[in-house]
Design goal:
single chain, 405 residues, six-stranded mixed beta barrel, 13 helices
């Protein structure tokens, strides 16, 4: 009952000057809402990248061409065609624990049908590619191992490319010209959406890699290999097998740098999300500064309140209030300010994150953990910054307080 009475006294004191109470809470409100919104934006960006990584398929290892050096400078991925048809055959034959493997040959070319003519991405792949990427067909069928072996002129077309070239017409069975070669569409790919780089994955035509190399690009090397493991626990072993086999085939001796890059899906995800994680921490830290400023504002106002209410404190002590009662009263005032500010800040932060998502189109993800953490942190700020003014009030001498003008 004593604590309830103390709480009522504290609330009455805050209501006595509503405008000052609201202004004092403003720092906490801004700080909490900024933390919630900034963390939501960072988490949304991270979740989007992770979703795009997941679109690569399950248990995938990427073997990338390049990573060679010229003098002291690393030329990086794609700087040299170091993966060959013989490498692909060796990996397919000798690797243990894989369920599929497909090369990639990428280029851009003119595609025409009827009066339509566009420039789109052409990618040469193996018959395992769709299974590795978990890319379903909306219509038609995949090309076969025989199509790959004989460099058959067949193609799978993406949703965007099909709509641009053929409108609402069923693309399966239609003939398109890629450069000067006629290709028959045997299947329409399901929608994939945007890639990690922001490009449209559905603006694409897939053809057998042999057809791409013989009839389109004339190249003899691959951009990359997609290797799918039977299970996630086998990926480290498969990665080691790939590195050992390619180093042996490319005659890379100890101490020399590989002319290829091998990355598991988890490594790619870690690298891709590192920037968004760093940005989330940075934005949260910057927003957290405003919480600290809000706490300092609470301490400042509470010190002013102690000075203004010195006589009141003296009267309460004179009629029997103990020092801990005074301490509790002012501590409750400080914590109430910070908790109310925290609740309002959470509501504004969630609303702000949704507004950003709706207006700007950014993905945002408000996690319950961030709201709970922000609320607890605002309570801790109330206790931390309210304790000193409350302690100062509790240590006032009753006689001196009654004499205070």
């Amino acid at each position: 009952m004593i604590h309830i009475a103390t709480f009522k006294i504290a609330v009455r004191a805050l209501r006595r000057n509503t405008l000052r109470t609201l202004l004092t809470m403003l720092g906490i409100i801004i700080g909490v809402s900024a933390v919630i919104a900034m963390v939501a934006i960072g988490n949304g960006a991270k979740a989007q990248v992770e979703s795009q990584i997941a679109s690569l398929g399950q248990n995938v290892i990427l073997v990338l061409s390049g990573n060679v050096s010229r003098g002291r400078f690393s030329m990086g991925f794609g700087s040299a065609g170091t993966l060959t048809r013989e490498d692909y055959d060796a990996l397919r034959r000798d690797l243990n624990g894989i369920s599929g493997i497909s090369p990639e040959v990428r280029s851009f070319a003119q595609i025409a049908t009827g009066s339509q003519n566009i420039n789109s991405q052409i990618m040469g792949v193996g018959e395992d590619y769709l299974d590795i990427r978990a890319w379903p067909l909306a219509n038609g069928a995949n090309f076969t191992e025989a199509d790959v072996r004989t460099a058959n002129k067949v193609a799978l077309i993406g949703k965007t490319t099909a709509r641009t070239l053929l409108g609402d017409t069923d693309p399966v069975g239609q003939i398109i010209r890629i450069k000067t070669a006629p290709f028959t569409i045997v299947g329409e790919l399901g929608a994939k959406g945007m890639s990690m780089t922001g490009s449209d994955q559905d603006d694409i035509v897939l053809v057998p890699y042999t057809s791409a190399m013989v009839r389109l690009s004339g190249g003899t090397t691959f951009r990359s290999f997609n290797v799918q493991g039977v299970s996630a626990k086998l990926l480290p072993d498969i990665q080691s097998q790939i590195i050992d086999l390619l180093r042996q085939r490319h005659r890379i001796t100890d101490g020399r740098e590989d002319d290829f890059i091998v990355r598991t899906q988890e490594e790619i995800s870690d690298m891709a999300t590192q920037t968004s994680r760093t940005m989330t921490v940075l934005l949260g830290a910057i927003a957290g500064v405003s919480l600290l400023v809000g706490g300092i504002g609470i301490m400042n106002i509470m010190l002013v309140s102690v000075t203004e209410r010195t006589r009141e404190i003296g009267v309460r002590m004179a009629v029997g209030a103990r020092g801990r009662d005074i301490l509790l009263q002012f501590l409750i005032e400080a914590v109430t300010l910070s908790l109310l500010g925290g609740l309002i800040g959470i509501l504004l932060g969630v609303g702000g994150a949704r507004a950003v998502s709706a207006k700007v189109g950014w993905n945002t993800l408000v996690s319950p953990e961030s709201m709970i953490l922000a609320f607890l942190f605002s309570a801790a700020i109330g206790v931390f910054f309210g304790f000193y003014p409350a302690r100062k009030a509790a240590q006032l001498d009753p006689i001196e307080a009654l004499r205070y003008e």
